[in-house]
Amino acid sequence: MGSFILFALIILFASFLQTSTGFGFSIMATPFLLLLFEPREAIQLNLILSFVISCVLIRKIKKDMDVTLVKRLIVGSAAGLPIGIVIFLVADINKLKIGVSVIVLVLTLLLILQFRISQTKVRDLVTGGLSGVLTTSIGMPGPPVLLYFSSIHTSKEKLRATTLAFYLFIYPASLIVQLLFAGTSKGIWVSSAVALPVVLAGLFLGQLLFARINQQMFRIFLYGLLIFTGIYLLLDSWN
């Protein structure tokens, strides 16, 4: 019962973040789901539920998305997906989490120090590629996209809509790759079905917050979440 309550709380808060920010589910859920499930189960749960969230939300916010950027991210991620599954199958999961945590913390520090870059086609593609690698390897496409969008000073509306549109491709594509090369289990799909009512509750609460948060608060929240994720992954990999 204790594990179920923890699972429900993780999914509720992660769904809340996904709706209010456009990226929070994978960043919040994956590290904590690894406490309850094996890596394959945690990653596939994240992929399934994140895809459901994107499907529910995209109709309401599609007017804010950058279609050209979404297409470039998809093209780039197509190259990253197979690399990510190879890493998942052969790499030590703790070393992988250490690498990701260091990257997230360093890049977040650069953003806090007002590091900025200009948007280019090549950088769009590279960001998509990195996102693809992280999705099939650890189920977290958010950090590269979030860090890139923040560095080019993207509005919170455009960030949320564009990332959700990108996730409509990256999550099912990554899940298919996972199923083909890593397999799945009945428990993963049962847990996903049980989590759906909790996800819907999180979506409702997240929508209420998004309408009330300004751009400055939004960025502070993003940086705090990234720092928390990076530190958590780093500490968890040493246990």
TrEMBL record:
Q: How does it sit in the membrane?
A: Multi-pass membrane protein
Location in the cell: Cell membrane
Entry superkingdom: Bacteria
Principal cellular location given in the protein's record:
membrane
The UniProt transmembrane annotation reads: 73-90, 96-113, 164-182, 188-210, 217-235
Q: Which Pfam families match?
A: TauE (PF01925)
Q: Which InterPro entries match?
A: TM_pro_TauE-like, TSUP
State if Cell membrane is listed as a keyword.
yes
Give the keywords, sorted.
Answer: Cell membrane, Membrane, Transmembrane, Transmembrane helix, Transport
What PANTHER family does its record include?
MEMBRANE TRANSPORTER PROTEIN (PTHR30269:SF37), TRANSMEMBRANE PROTEIN YFCA (PTHR30269)
Q: Which family does it belong to?
A: Belongs to the 4-toluene sulfonate uptake permease (TSUP) (TC 2.A.102) family.
Q: Mind telling me what this protein is named?
A: Probable membrane transporter protein
- The scientific name of the source species is Bacillus lumedeiriae
